[in-house]
């Protein structure tokens, strides 16, 4: 392809240069897409084309329902089996963008008679969209800086682990398409700010509409864009272009966003959206002032600004406060507070804090997810601040806010990743521009040759190759097109540019720096592949373990249990299980069987808003069997399901998450459940004989360890040795009165118990006359072992 | 086609009433009742004697009035050739099921001939007790007839009952009777009048898998590019004694004995040329299966996701492809003939309650003729759309209930088809793009 481009060159010099650069851009973006797609396929190749975790399972199920029954039926779908006994109006409680996207892909493919199963569309949706994200990142960065930086950014985002973590094949979640929508909206917004055209603003609001339909993270956009506008106003960069684009965007975006059933009237009734409205009003105020400025004298105008500004700010603030108190505007939600105060959730809403992805981010994970980009992105930020203009203000604000949020919550790492990629792209591009500046045609040809002499390697080490091509493209594009930002940029700081020109850099330094940069990029690619392969590509419903000889064993216990439940329990059976996010795969799987028309009612799944209900389940799990039985009867439970990892050493099991359950239960029922009861005197959480008696007799403990005390895992360990917690369990010989084991999977990972009906455990009443007294030769069956260690209620 | 006409003839024959020829006598009957599996397989070697004056071309076979669950019947002569069997109504006879058997060689007066009658009955082994705990052994009862049920006088007969284990709880003792190992021998009895019934009961331990395929959907998709894809949607249920009380994984893991009433795994036999085999269910791939290629076939060891206990059920999809040159032929007249099994092996001694076979023909076939080895119900044809297919393909659907291993036989579909249509899909693909 490169050859084809170079052959053209004799015809016309200008054409060939433009042709080559656009060809390079095309090839690099294509390769970024392919690399991004391919590196997300580890899980599919190692396991199978399967949906990974709970949320994706739910989304998949909803999509399958929509494909089968049509969109309107989907919106009206009332799923009486989820969140028993409340039921769930699915159409009104999900962001439908994801389902609509894959549903329409499915529809189009089927129109062409390409009969792809909806499951496969769902599995491969996120990898495909990662390519689109790369392209929109390219465009965004191109608008902000240059095409070369755009190519860098596109390649980075295609393989950066921070984004891959949410978009591997099989993770069919909102984030997969939302990041694309996010980047694309920002691109369109920047475009509209630059041009001031209504067309781009409308396009931005349409893209925003798609984002709203796809992910709750749209709030980020609707706060960041007003923030951008606000800061521009503060900087005195008001312009008619800004006015046009923001007002168009805000009004259309507002109306569009209210079309999504889940969002509804929130954009005008909740505090999260008030900033946008405030900036909207401010925009008009500034506009009016500007207009008045033309008609008044300077002193008149000054006093008007001060008075008018203060008065209007006061009025707006008062209005918001009053509306909030009057209940027209909802105050900030708990999740929102937890963004400002990391300790808030732990105290007030343990259910949110219990989700591991809502924990504050560690430094380790910054490096793990972004690698070298962590170091280079401040450099990019510096470049941008140095050469500030309207749209670069935006990326600065984006970077600062995203860094803050990513620090608060692991999950929001996702919103940081794109901006890090953009700024790192700018940094690398800036560096290379500096160091390759005087390297003209000679070097260019050199690397080109290198490129097509090793085309076969491309598949294996993706980034270095791309990096090289980017190198060239960044350069050649830079040569051909005079950097676009300068053309339209408002306030140009040419000083820096000029001083750069005069820098004389020796060829040695130049080559050393280039090599170092290339090495860094190569390391980055290696790291990305490694992280993707090891950390983010395991479907959590299938576990794999490796034997000492390297053979792989698949532990398919989750699916075993759910398939058992779907096949061998009544259609209206109700299953109680724990709630926390990652272990709710179980529910998803069970629900997935609805295709056969035989799904089970779930008592608690990912339902993080129905706190009291969860607390009741938590209470049942934390109480002793008798008390739990009462709760279970009240909840009308047929089966109880626990995850137990003691046999295979799976650490994400219910006992390890049990304390969260206790905390949630304590929050609602402080009289019955006290967290301190579950610790030993020394404040430890132990399951061995030292453990607290309350713990050793609670339902969760009993269900997890029922008959485990008899099991000898291998010859070196005593019977009842828990591999997850490395301890011999404390309460070994006990019987269950109110429940019976219904099913336990091969590796004991999932245990299902059936709740007995009253007549099954109550012995039938025998009339006094018929009672027979046992023979007096009664021998106590208690052995010395059994005599010790029973807690009395 | 041949069979189709035969079916029509059957219908006409049914209306004609047969008479019992009193001149025929069962000189000797050696019956063996095989109860080792979940099926009841009765095979009787009958020596028929013609004591009359006319030669006889056909004779009657009768089954007990309660033998409604007959799945398969076959009669062979001494040369092991299948004889033609026609359902019959008998004039003045008691209720019961009769079949008229056409002999190849007429039996002249005073001569005798030997035929072998093979009958497979389903659902005749009743678990008793009907629900057991995990540790118990599975006991079943069989109710039958001590005597060979026949419209003719039986001079001498002997019955062997083959059981799956030595432990027999109880059995009726109509003398002479003897038990050795896992075999009970009844008889010889002499001079039994026609239609004599004397209830035989055997109560014994049978831990062989009581696995019923409640529904099997077999989809055969023909591609003239050289491949035939077969997909089977199978629903199975353990129809032995119900599991009472809890299922304990601990006990199950400790109990390593091979004779257990639960079903851990079973073997499916596929054609030797099968490739691209997959085994999955609605939750995705089932990782517990092994493929072992043998010389003549491919053996597939399937483990359901969970062991099946009495009353538990499961379902899965098994699919594979075979090259079409082994099954699809072109006649000199230009017609294409597909010869395939109507039902294939699922597990040994299988019992399929309901079978639905769909054959997806290539695009644009015409004058389809179908020829089945036994009577099947033909459901209305359907049209389906496969990859890049805008004309639609016709689907032939066949249905039959109560099938056993003996029903694994070939059917034939003949159709006209133009080879140019092979290019239809690539062309339409080009056009669409």
TrEMBL record, chain A:
Residues 24-423 form the Oligosaccharyl transferase STT3 N-terminal domain. Its EC number is 2.4.99.18. The chain crosses the membrane at residues 20-45, 89-109, 121-139, 145-164, 176-202, 208-235, 247-268, 274-292, 304-328, 363-385, 392-410, 416-436, 512-532. It catalyses: a di-trans,poly-cis-dolichyl diphosphooligosaccharide + L-asparaginyl-[protein] = N(4)-(oligosaccharide-(1->4)-N-acetyl-beta-D-glucosaminyl-(1->4)-N-acetyl-beta-D-glucosaminyl)-L-asparaginyl-[protein] + a di-trans,poly-cis-dolichyl diphosphate + H(+). It is an enzyme of class 2 (transferase). GO terms for cellular component: endomembrane system; membrane. Its main location: membrane. Its cofactor is Mg(2+); Mn(2+). It is a multi-pass membrane protein. GO terms for biological process: post-translational protein modification; protein N-linked glycosylation via asparagine. Pathway: Protein modification; protein glycosylation. Keywords: Glycosyltransferase, Magnesium, Manganese, Membrane, Metal-binding, Transferase, Transmembrane, Transmembrane helix. It comes from the Eukaryota. This is dolichyl-diphosphooligosaccharide--protein glycotransferase. It holds the Pfam family STT3. The keyword Manganese applies. It is found in: Endomembrane system. GO terms for molecular function: dolichyl-diphosphooligosaccharide-protein glycotransferase activity; metal ion binding.
Automatic annotation (TrEMBL), chain B:
Transmembrane segments: none annotated. InterPro entries: Ribophorin_I. Pfam families: Ribophorin_I (PF04597). The keyword Zinc does not apply. GO terms for biological process: protein N-linked glycosylation via asparagine. It is found in: Endoplasmic reticulum membrane. Component of the oligosaccharyltransferase (OST) complex. PANTHER family: DOLICHYL-DIPHOSPHOOLIGOSACCHARIDE--PROTEIN GLYCOSYLTRANSFERASE SUBUNIT 1 (PTHR21049:SF0), RIBOPHORIN I (PTHR21049). This is Dolichyl-diphosphooligosaccharide--protein glycosyltransferase subunit 1. It comes from Aromia moschata.
